[in-house]
Amino acid sequence: MSEYKLNPPTVSSYTENMMLKVLFEHKGFSEVFRESSWRSDEIASAFGLPEELENDKNLRTVARRLLKERYKKLQKSTALLPELWKQAYENLATLAEFLQLNPVEQELLRFAMHLRSEGAMRDLFGYLPKSDLQRTGEIMADLLKQPKNQILSALKKGSKLDAYGLIDRDYRPDSVHDYLDWGETLDFDEFVTQPLNENVLLKSCTEVAQVPSLQLDDFAHIAGMKEMMLTYFAKGTKTSSERCESFNLWCARHW
């Protein structure tokens, strides 16, 4: 058997660890790696698997060995945050403080950020069996090491993440990643590259009112309608008043 070595991964250590966990603890390996091929070049590249391995008859065995060794190593190491992600993580902390996000909401938003940025992880979730909200809650609780009930609460309609437009879900979600789309409130490219402050956040969450351009003269054409309606209401009020007086007189005579 040829000796293969992994190339440097093309994803962050955070995403690599999540993807390896999905492979070996959520039956993702059997979905992606077949006996003589892998189903996604992007996933293979993300893990750093050498291209020549795809032509090896022992592809599955070799890939499992290499990736398991890598997974064990990652679990024992404390990965440093790459400079590429420094601004994004600072913005996450700032946003959490502004909106008072709890730890579960922060972890879900961080996951959604990596999911949006690193397509290989989204690709991997696409190969897993269909998943409803309950199953998604179970998987995310395991991946993020957070209580399932709190995960479900943070992902439900009307939750803080949903109400603020920080995360979104597909119209008909049936996979884990469908429940964790990046929301429309914050521009993703700006969020991961530019400093976030209170003014930027307010600008993202509000719409500036337009200066009104209509003048009183613009309503001159309805002057006739106005007079007609005033006359109508005046007659209606008079009739109603007369009816009340008649009713009161009748009551006084018969009671």
Automatic annotation (TrEMBL):
Protein name (database record): ATP-binding protein
Top-level taxonomic group: Bacteria
Keywords linked to the UniProt accession: ATP-binding, Nucleotide-binding
Taxonomic lineage from the root: Bacteria, Pseudomonadati, Pseudomonadota, Gammaproteobacteria, Pasteurellales
GO-annotated molecular function: ATP binding
